[in-house]
Amino acid sequence: MTTPRHTYGRGRLAAAFGGLAAATLAVAIAVPAAAAGSTLQAAASESGRYFGTAIAASRLGDGTYTSIANREFNMITAENEMKMDATEPSRGQFSYSSGDRIVNWARQNGKQVRGHALAWHSQQPGWMQNLSGTDLRNAMLNHVTQVASYYKGKIYAWDVVNEAFADGSSGGRRDSNLQRTGNDWIEAAFRAARAADPNAKLCYNDYNTDNWSHAKTQGVYNMVRDFKSRGVPIDCVGFQAHFNSGNPVPSNYDVTLRNFAALGVDVQITELDIEGSGSSQAQQYQGVVQACLSVARCTGITVWGVRDSDSWRASGTPLLFDGSGNKKAAYTSVLNQLNAGGTTNPNPNPTTPVPTPTTTTPPPTGGGSCTATYSEGQKWGDRFNGTVTIRANGNISGWTSTVTVRSPQKIIATWSGSPSWDSSGNVMTMRPSGSGALSSGQTTSFGFTVQHNGTWTWPSVTCAAS
Ligand code: XIL
Predict the structure, then answer these.
(1) Atom of ligand 1 nearest to the CA of 207
(2) Ligand 1: residue whose CA is nearest its atom 5
(3) Phi and psi at residue 129, in whole multiples of 5°?
């Protein structure tokens, strides 16, 4: 496929120079002031999107923190202060002082607020953790009603339910005290939230739902599709987007966002952070922004904190500003990508049907299974290397691994394996050069070079054992 996936409406530095080169060159070249936003919020606004951050009430006295937050962001999420344990520490006794500090700061500075989160298995107050059955269901619904009513009119979007799906291959719900009150707890929470604040957008929010081929992504997708078909009030889906080397930005992120949006909901990146540093981190941030900009209904991006030192994962330095408040390479790549254009979705109303959920890999015949892990290799201006490590879980007699890159990326070289290709050229199936037998715990690896053509998302990889 040679048609460019993205059309750029404005400044095209990142597209023109590509990846690593863009990250450095764009700074030196300096975009003309009139043509580009000089802050994240200004650059995002040009395409009608917001750029947000999580704020901790305890840091509002820190002048460096508030001045960066005020300058760069126009959507604010309370990092912890509006969660269930913060807002209802004792049953029926609501506490809004910390949440109010954040909401007031946001409103005084002309910013909107994302509410986070009304119902969640985690960060529940102690009294709620001990409830079950009808008592818990009613307590949860009362919480949703009270908190959403209190903040009525001040919230752009609520994360009504957070993290209700299980990790792994089931695609089903996470076990929790809330789930054990009955499978309809999520829709009950959404109906209560709609009744309490009819003008807030109501979102389902989760993590590990970025890769379209993951079972969890499909599970959430099927729930949203079901909600839309039955008239359950849902307006948006939040993608937390906490990434690191074990969970990199998937190459099909734009596919995921586009498929959810095609259900008739907005999509938002709600808690973005990417562990790492330098150009690698910058390129992954660029890929996330690029994915959002390619989907008309991706309405905004929120990073989960201001400086690395403010992050819940501070040791992973996952944010856009360093501990001293300096802009990192990741900041520059995000700003440049935002300025590269509010890309309109080239296919907002797809005529092709939304892809059906990917079937799960059939069980291996040779006893064991395998896992494939992607790791980054060397990077150049126009290409990067990657390695896939295959690990046997139990004895296996052979393996097959797929590597999917995102068009217009192309795999231009491989080593230590025997590749074949699908008709699109974007899915490589790698088989072992030799026998492929591995005993339990043993690993092997193969590598490849991707010519990125301006798209900096990492390949997604799978493994099937035989
Ligand atoms: C995190 C906060 O950043 C931490 O300060 C807190 O200790 C734990 O929660 N998913 C979510 C967020 O929805 O609420 C979490 O925030 C990060 C993961």
Answers:
(1) 10
(2) 312
(3) -55, -30
Q: How far away, in angstroms, is 312 Cα from ligand 1 center? A: 7
- Tens of pLDDT, residue by residue over 217-237, are 999 999 999 999 999 999 999
* Mean pLDDT on 181-201: 98
The residues assigned a catalytic role are 163, 271
Distance of CA 361 to the CA centre of its chain: 24
Q: Rounded distance, CA 92 to CA 191, Å?
A: 20
DSSP 370-388: EEEEEEEEEE-SSEEEEEE
Output the CA 156–ligand 1 centroid distance in Å: 20
- Assigned token pair, 182: 């009955």
Cβ(79) to ligand 1 under 6 A?
Answer: yes
- Are 81 and 99 in contact by the 8 Å Cβ rule? The answer is yes
- The C-alpha atoms of residue 167 and residue 35 are separated, in whole angstroms, by 43
Q: What are the pLDDT digits (tens) for 75-110?
A: 999 999 999 999 999 999 999 999 999 999 999 999
Among 384, 277, 269, CA closest to 338: 269
C-alpha to C-alpha distance for 61 and 306, rounded to whole angstroms: 14
